[in-house]
Amino acid sequence: MEESVIEAKYPIGFREDEARKLGQHLRNRRSVVLIGMKRVGISNFLRFFLNHKNIFPTYINDGKKHLFIPVDLNDLVEREVYPFWILTLKRISDAVNKSSLNKELEKEIENLFLDSIQSQDLFLTIDNVRKALIKIINAKLLPDIFFIRFDRIKDAATPAFFSNLQGLKDSTHRKLSYIFTSYRTLDGLSPDVFDKASLSVFCQNMYIKPAASKDVKIIAQTYKTRYGLNLPELTEEDLFEIVDGFIQYLQLGLINLSERKIKIKDKKDLFERLARDERIMLQSEELWESLSEKEKEIMVKVIDEERIEEKDKREGEYLWNSGFLNREGIFSKLFDFYIRKREGRKEEKQKIEFTKKENRLFNLLKNTTNEICEREKIIEIVWPEVEELGVSDWAIDRLVSRVRNKLKDQDAKYEIKTIKTRGYKLVDLSSSKIK
Q: What pTM was estimated for this model as a whole?
């Protein structure tokens, strides 16, 4: 167990229903896709599940030994199939090294990884993954591979890629279990790759909705302790009600309150402060853009209190399954506010002045004109307050897009170029040295 993983110290009853369901899937050697809206807290839940010392006896307890193998696809620099399998093999090796397996087996699996790196051969690498998994099973351990943020690989996925995933499960006599995390079902991500008929046998869907009140309090208390936050009891309860179980809203709300020492007058004052926070608005925009046009239409219907037809429920089932919509309507007052503001604004050209974060990004790029600015540096400078919590690729790309468009509207002499897999470069168009 990693001492630095704060979720490892959560009470064992954290997200109890989800932990019990996932434990049952693993006990029965089923693969599962954990699905939820972006930044809803799936990674938070998995850090708890993967690292808490009492998970096995409480939720799995099948009398067998398991080897948890987390493969965080946020670590992928290139979202391609070969790097995916190399990363998977490396994380298998890492998990074995941290386990109680003998040193000889550790060395054998490490050599499989080194052979794959040296050969740079896709088929050899996949076969070495197979060999490593079989060695683990022969050592009387059941491998559980957690592909975190599996949706990051969706554009590179092919039918052959899916066949390889299935083939590994078959070659281990179905003793291997996969746990994928995604903001959509696998067939929703890539319908031409993951067909429903095959998926019904391959894995099951499990939705992770916004957290219950008791779980929100656990997360908030942990962050308050870690960062030395001291919130008045009434302010805290109001915050929980406003974020309504959405973990990224909660974290950003706590950051907002820790940054500003202004006294909160009442719940309305707190809501207005959070609703105006640029980071929260950007998060709301990411959620909105993750929806299909039909789903957006249904959300607006709910806002306008229009009748929801049976056809709407069928076509928009993701909204209810994932928790975007519940019996009371929109899952969070902050997201409700964002939609109302978005749909109510006039169709006019947006102001071309930079917001605070847009200005930070532009100044960073300008200070390194004609040089590559890595994504990690952008996060460090533009989002220093949430760097540890993580910043999504979408948030970075969207902010860059905004700055790029505003530079055009301003007829500026600069242009932002995308450097694939690395970051961005600001080019001075007036410089005669530019080639």
A: 0.84
